[in-house]
Amino acid sequence: MTEDAPVRLLLADDHPVVRAGLRAVLETEPDLVVVAEAATAEDAVTRAAAGDVDVVLMDLQFGKGMGGAAATALITARPAAPRVLIITTFDSDADVLPAIEAGATGYLLKDAPPEDLASAVRAAATGGTTLAPTVADRLMNRLRAPRTALTPRETEVVTLVAAGLSNQAIGARLHLTEGTVKSHLARVYAKLGVDSRTAAVATATDLGLIRR
């Protein structure tokens, strides 16, 4: 991308209507051009490596197969990689943190105004960061209160508790012993200041640590 060249975009989302909507909004901007679309995270990784993309607009959930955070990590790990801007409906810690850690430059929600989306794309193209207000607030709260931050494994465990799984079933799902699951839950209880599975789920949900 040169100073006068348009920003070249790859739209990665498994819903054709969403991709069409993003294309319609972004291509009204004279300095933005959509050069490709991908319906799966795997296709996005492959297409992003072609060398003609400046910014990837990446969803987080693609149904079966690879997720957006994993795809982001693969894309950004390559030399001269395009920037990745997350565009999703999810703003929980369980979604935000893996995406940021994977190398995403920015994180917007799909209800963002069109002008905010275009500005975020331009910022991403130059290495700038744009975060949805709720995401920025969540990250700041996490920094202010690290005691309540759950590890990725603890987040997985409490998410499965919220889904109604027993400790034994959680262990089978995550390839852990039942004792290890209980240890993770004990740490979750201590961090959240609760003493039951129900309270852990309610508090984790209220704090945005797991997806609603």
Gist of the model:
This protein has 212 residues and is of the alpha/beta class.
Number of helices: 10
**What CATH first level of the largest domain would be assigned?**
Alpha Beta
What's the overall average pLDDT, rounded?
89
Q: Per DSSP, what share of the residues sits in E-state strands of 2 or more residues?
A: 5-15%
Q: Can you tell me the CATH topology of the largest domain?
A: Rossmann fold
Q: Spell out the helices and strands N to C.
A: EHEHEHEHEHHHHHH
Morphology call: elongated
Task: Determine the fraction of residues in helical runs and give it as a percent range.
Answer: 40-55%
- The number of domains is 2
CATH superfamily of the largest domain: Response regulator
Overall radius of gyration: 19 Å
CATH architecture of the largest domain: 3-Layer(aba) Sandwich
Largest sheet: 5 strands, parallel
Cα separation of the termini: 39 Å
Low-confidence stretches: none
Strand order of the largest sheet: 2-1-3-4-5
* Main structural class: alpha/beta
Would you count the extended β strands for me?
A: 5
